[in-house]
Specification:
2 helices
Length: 87
């Protein structure tokens, strides 16, 4: 799947899940308890996660890709105590 298609999916997920929140905000006060659990536990978390992914997803993808790369055991790094101090 291309990156453009992924962006489109996240964008539309964000838009679609924001519609019930608008209904929650502008609904009559008597109907708010009917919408509260779904809004609190489904719509708001999906909006937050999709928004954060669209905003900072590139950072998370970079962190995930760096963790998946295993270091080569033949290349040993020197411990910090063995490195000569800078003058």
């Amino acid at each position: 799947m291309s990156s453009g298609a992924k962006r489109r999916i996240f964008r539309w997920t964000h838009i679609v899940f924001s519609i019930p929140i608008l209904g929650y905000i502008y609904s009559p006060f008597e109907q708010i308890p009917n919408y509260a659990p779904a809004t609190r536990f489904v719509f708001v978390p999906v909006l937050v996660l999709s928004g954060l992914w669209m905003w900072k997803g590139h950072v998370l993808r970079r962190l995930i890709s760096q963790r998946s790369v295993q270091p080569d055991p033949s290349q040993k790094s020197l411990p910090l105590a063995d490195v000569a101090p800078l003058r």
